[in-house]
């Protein structure tokens, strides 16, 4: 008894959970397309009314011809029905046009909701593998969510058809009273009609249970199979990163990579095609079984209508109406059951989208406003800060204590993996420390309003990028900008000569993705434009996190020197693994294995003959042939 009760309780909870999930999916769809479902529900009514008008008109004409009735009356009735049908078709076309105009926007709005989540979620989630796995399911989930929407409309369409058909069939049951007994009398009774309805409903449910649901499952499993997912991912990769990126054309031709690329594309296509071939083999038997089951009700309905006509229960025109109304009823029932099965199969995919949107933002965003200072006198302090990445076994930063004095220029140096970039991520609140605290003017930065705090920083990371927009839009990060100020920042960053050579000036579009006259920038020029972006922001605290790691020492030294002149009295941090570029800083902190090994001025650190001095000598020896003058 207890086992049965527990089983029923679990079933009840599953049903409640399913209804809650269904409600959330509908709300999400309505958020992406407000009022769209209502429009589709309204569009169904005139569309289906036209079908029934046609059936009724056909029956009237056949009856009039068979009984040699009053043709003038028939013509008048036909004209009235045609006029009504015209009105309904006009309404149906109007609503259909409104419905179809929303299709693209609906999908884009769903994607926009996901994009907004990606842009605004805590950065801690961006670098996590489980977030990437959830995001990989979102694209397919959105496609299935849109199909779920179609399933909902499908259920409404089938229900409307079923109800109208049943309403129109009921009067046809009231034929002449049975004059004979036996089977002929049974055929004339209402019981026979209800039995026919039960039989075709049972056949339809069997068809759904044994065949349709299995077909849906095969298609869904194939869509989510490793072969289809991997094949589609590979093709998407080559489409996005090879065929649509014209700058890859040089390498493809110089290294004769076309054969390899085309083979990979063909192989990925074969993976998808083979998966669907196997699915097709499985579907074939179920489709044959479905076709046979669908044929049986049609045969039953036709034979039943003819038998009732032969016993005098139905007129000739009524036979046509009976067959067609019952066929529509059967079709409506089939559409409803198909829609219900589709909803059941697509809800888990909708859940994948909701799970991604439900990723919680745990970062406390604070309420304390940051102090607005015209003198930019901000002071930061790391006080015994430790940090460990989620899922990691060891701390990346260990008991780090640092202080930036007002207007000071500090350099963070160290070997790769020493924790330099992690320190910047903590300073900018991309992560929160797992131990210790970071202070701004003596107050824990977590207490400040997050957006106001982030506005204090201009950061140039080593992988910062520029986009295929105009130079001005890249610098201002907006379509609205101060043109004079943009040009001033671009020239300060060292791009005066390049800018003067561009006919369109700061309005010039970068690269040729959208403009065949787009400007191609070298790596160094792109970095200078990123520096101009940091200058335009006008933040009081500036950070350069190895933005020139791919450049030669001379170019790096030039950019750092230029930026140092721009910084002026603002507080700044320079991160570089090349020590020569940071000699002008007031303080140099050397990180080793996540801890501060030593700090001081360039001269003081060389005199100590420690970690910094060892790195300096190694780099000076390496670069003495190409940039020895930088180390004097």
Describe this structure in words.
With 632 residues, this protein is of the alpha/beta class. It is built from 21 helices and 10 strands. It has helices spanning 2-32, 36-67, 71-100, 103-120, 123-126, 129-173, 182-188, 190-223, 226-243, 249-254, 258-310, 316-357, 420-427, 450-454, 471-476, 483-492, 496-500, 523-537, 553-567, 602-608, 611-627, and strands at residues 380-387, 397-404, 409-414, 435-440, 443-444, 457-461, 541-545, 571-575, 587-592, 595-600. The chain has a 6-stranded mixed sheet with strand order 6-7-8-3-9-10, with helices on both faces. Helix 1 crosses helix 12, helix 8 runs parallel beside helix 12 (316-357) and helix 9 packs across helix 11 (258-310). 27% of the residues are buried. Mean pLDDT is 76; it is low at 625-632.
Global geometry: elongated
Q: What is the helix content?
A: 55-70%
Beta-strand segment tally: 10
Strand percentage, roughly? 5-15%
Mean pLDDT: 76
- Largest sheet, if any? 6 strands, mixed
Distance between the termini: 89 Å
The total of helices stands at 21
- CA gyration radius, whole angstroms: 36 Å
Poorly predicted segments: 625-632
Adjacency order of strands in the biggest sheet: 6-7-8-3-9-10
Structural class: alpha/beta
Please give a quick description of this structure.
65% of the residues lie in helices and 9% in strands. It has 21 helices and ten strands. The strands form two sheets. A six-stranded mixed beta sheet has the order 6-7-8-3-9-10, with helices on both faces. Strands 2-1-4-5 form a four-stranded antiparallel beta sheet, with helices on one face.
